[in-house]
# Entry
Amino acid sequence: MAQNKQITLDNIASAVGVSCSTVSRVLTGQSKKYRISDKTRELVQETARELGYFPDQLARGLRTKRTNTIGLIIPDISNPFFSTIARNIEIQARKTGCSTVLSDSQEDTQLEIESVQLLQSRKVDGLIICPVGEEHSHLERIISSGLPLVIVDRYFKNLDCAFVVSDNYQGAVEAVEYFFSMNHRSIGYIQGRVNTSVNIERIRGFRDAYSKQGIPVDESLIVGDSFGKRNGYIGAKMLLSKSPRPTAIFAASNLISLGAMSAIQEEGLKIPEDISIISFDEQPYSEYLATPMTTVAQQTSETGEIAFKLLHAQIHQDGEQSKEGIVLPTELVFRKSVKKLNHPTSE
Ligand code: RIB
# Structure
């Protein structure tokens, strides 16, 4: 079978009539540094395109010990929260000539571990991981190996590495305080994956907002155990079956609120007439819903951009493991899914 003929720098140099080093300097973005004229630069680039040249990453990797590739592991590519982060990481990586290999851990820690091993075997220059968020011994092994690593979203306080997260605590406090300002006191909380940092921080905010008002939390109104839609559906069904029914629901994530809305509709109830709701996570569809959703928006685009820049800095400091942690504020986006009750009561 015919082998793909690898076009070399020599082929381009001969075609243009310049030295191999000139071709190499042009194709590695060093024209200005070596004062190569625009005319020569454009001629070399055009000839490389015409001949179908592409750099031999394997050979370059052996020489430079870099593959210009990063690994990215996220729990659910179909979730707009993670896909927005992934997209912004890829956009930033491409700007630096770096490619991104993406792996979906399907909210499964074992798959996350396997993805880490696969990406390390591909000799990626660094890893950005949005962890499933319950175990971190495999992440400690990455740090011990010296491979640059940035953690995003669900993080571990005692993990000695760079991270980019939201201020989940303050986001939850502001949402519950808004419910109180609208005279809601009986608020059902559908939580996410229980032992993850984001869930721990959000429920801490929920509880502290209550205690600031001197009101005890009704523990029977805290339900749920995962960030998925099904958890939202079941949690809402449980809350709506209580008597008296809570006047509001705080959904701990985008998919949870989707499931909760499905249950509310199935029960023949209307938002916000019969039940008010706030969702953690802004979504592309939030404002287009039959009742535009009030949300706690995370800065997903900025999260992706910052995560890549932190990783890039580690890679190009020859593996200097920056321990910088960045916490981004959330924003309460007011829309129409919360009704003001006539007076502070559960009905
Ligand atoms: O399903 C998305 C949710 O899980 C988001 O709230 C995000 O913080 C992630 O942890």
Notes: The chain has a mean pLDDT of 93. The longest strand covers residues 69-74. The CA atoms of residues 148 and 291 lie 44 Å apart.
